[in-house]
Amino acid sequence: MDKLIRFRKLVPHIVAIVIFIGLSYSYFSPLLEGKDIQQSDITHFKGMSKEVRDYRADTGEEALWTNRLFGGMPAYFAGTKFKNNHTTSLEKLLTFPAKPANFLFLYLIGFYIALLLFRVNPWLSIVGAIAFAFSSYFFIIIAAGHNTKALAIGYMAPIVASIIHTYRYKRWTGLILTGIFLSLQIE
Prior knowledge:
By secondary structure, this protein is an all-alpha fold. The chain contains nine helices and two strands. It has helices spanning 2-27, 40-48, 50-59, 87-94, 101-117, 122-133, 136-144, 147-168, 171-186; strands at 65-66, 73-74. Strands 1-2 form a two-stranded antiparallel sheet. The termini are far apart.
């Protein structure tokens, strides 16, 4: 009987994830045909990060400076990979669909988590997450290739909700979630 009660509590969350994956791939259905969106900023980024990628391929080390960005700047803006970054696997879990469907999924799941932290009913949280995720500006920045801005928006709601959760409800749960979502944001 206890297992049945636990499963019933999980049902809305499972349904939410299935709906969010379905919406992400339905909206970006050309991905299923092998098509890709042409994002101008990503095209520019590939050119700017070439020096960093070439240095990594030649030496096996990470470049910390690049001359291709604005006459020179730190290379972590242009694709430096950091060893021992443990948030990468968690980020892959939260943004697993193919780009750009991953951004829509992150908007959905991030706002869903935020609403749950505010103790909103899970079924109503699904509706709220859908309303949030389908804001027109979010699709404009995806089309432009502002991928890091899209990630920042996706993590914004759970970060704010985690901080508020720390003060209002459970200090340690909120603190841990704040740390996790902030590390994902910075990563």
